[in-house]
Amino acid sequence: MCGICGIVLSDPNARVNPRVIERMSDAIAHRGPDDDGQYVNGNVGLGFRRLSIIDLSGGHQPMANEDETVWIAYNGEIFNHAEHRAPLEARGHQFRTRSDTEAIVHLYEEYGSACPRKLRGMFGFAIWDEKRRALLLARDRSGIKPMFFATTPGGDLVFGSEIKAILASGMVTPEVDDAAVAEYFALGTVSGSRTLFRGVKKLEPGHTLTWKDGRVSIERYWSPPAYEPGRVVVRDLADAADEFWRRFVEAVDITLMSDVPLGVFLSGGLDSSLIVAAMRERGVSELRTFSVGFAEAEASELPFARIVAKTFETEHHEVACTADDFFNALPRLTRHRDHPLTFSASIPLFFVSELAVSSVKVVLTGEGSDELFAGYGRYPRALLNLRAGGALDSVLPNAARGSLARAIRRLGDDYVGSRLKRSFLARASSFEESYLEPFADFDAAHRALVLNGHAGGAYSELGPLIDRKLLAVNPLEAMLRFDQVTYMEELLAKQDQMSMAASLESRVPFLDHHLIEWAAQLPPDVKLRGGSGKALVRLAAERVLPRSITHAKKRGFLVPLTRWLRDRGQDIFGEYMPESNDSLVSSAYVRRLLDEHRGGRDHTARLWRVLAFQVWRRELLAAPADVRAAVA
Fold first, then answer.
1. Tens of pLDDT along 560-576?
2. pTM exceeds 0.85
3. Active-site residue 5, yes or no?
4. List 2, 5, 115, 321, catalytic entry
5. Which residues pair with 76 in a beta bridge?
6. What percent of the chain has pLDDT over 70?
7. Which of 79, 286, 307, 627 could disulfide-link 254, Cβ–Cβ 3.0 to 4.6 Å?
8. Cβ neighbours around 183 below 10 Å, total
9. pLDDT beyond 70 at 626
10. 226-375+426-559 is classed in which CATH architecture?
11. Domain segments of the chain: what residues?
């Protein structure tokens, strides 16, 4: 696990300033405290920071092929790199290290920009091809590892594992992209290639970017297979659970590749507990688990984690997070994340990462299970909205349908009124109205209030991410695939940047692409059954986990934020409150939310979304810009 960065200038006679590459690398030094390096040659510069996991004595980067015409800076782990070694050697390639990095170099020489298709793992890498005078950027299939980039009007390219590396180049001025703000307030995401920084983009999961002669082209090299009913034959739920467990244990097994100790982030929920069970099945003898908890009993997962740790006899470690710990860390961790902390759980995740790194350098985590196997409670509710809304559309005239919706939307925001406003009675049967708006923290009406009337455009960029054809055949799978490239990508960004803030590598076995491709073809009734999600996962878990874990209510990763925002959070809002003349965020509306929350109404989700955004504006947008020249 590492951090990479770089610059390519469109003028072939220009020279990249090595000090700028060094400054960019220093900005992400937390991603790689063990080693650093750079390659600067005329108009190209690559920077690298290393966290040593594989081939500890070798693997220095940037790394080159035999004649130093191909150079790579790479972040990630390729779990199948060893299987490529013999075939590549048979074709004349010479290996000087045991590192997975070198395998990518030689695969590029054989397959060019198609080389990511050969890789099983998580990665973000940059390859400079001296002969072609071209740069290739690539990101893994699910976006486990990050990759950001920006271009200048003259065709220069700057990139990095984190946005802070790009800002450190001085080639981009940190400004908010107003067009992306509405989606952030609705869903907590900024989807597709956009970020909240104007001019800074994400390389989307499963894509490559090629720069040549000042021009950029982007191509998709992977997407989940088209859903074909009956393609995966499942006799019954038990058969699906058996096959899931076999495939999941294999996915866990390949992620155990390491020359350093590994551990598990253990919440006591199904997903992380299954990782522990699978590691034991694969013969891992020394197993360390790490958990975070709170003094508030209603939020603490520690009792469940302890049950699993005792069952599997792990070396278990715990850390507590208090309200003071939480709010004091908020500015610093926002700077690490580069974006607002959509998930309040980001902060305790950092604390448990700090705990883990004292004894391991790699942890396995459970991200991805809910988006593959329908683990969230919103899925059955959204299916009801889609089906019942479609039925209502077919029997009610448009005028009557509109009158009913308007009447409901005039209701108050109490529990009943809020639920009705989010139901099919007040919503059209489109994906946006049935799935996105009902579960938005700020729906259109409340977005207009918080954003001074600028509520539009929240979903304007999401169209290409919605599979309309699949929606008609298997609406559950359409929701899952949408979430995999929006909500899940945000979860993965949280996991990557909070763990890397502590110089800890995290791996996500649920997102092995072989497992994803199998799950993508499963019939919906083995994922969602009787209103309960992850049916096949739960059945598999019942065979290997304690009943107190498998029959516990789904908890998510709780933070006692409702209580904290009524106490310590009031002071924090005083520091980050929007100005009365703020043209973007309404100070009056935020004060109203705070007053109502203090009085007993639960506005936790909305207040956190505002606070996270305001801290980001203050800590990153208001920071002094570094404009030292990228050109030597």
1. 999 999 988 888 998 99
2. yes
3. no
4. 2
5. 123
6. 96
7. 79
8. 25
9. no
10. 3-Layer(aba) Sandwich (3.40)
11. 2-220, 226-375+426-559, 561-621
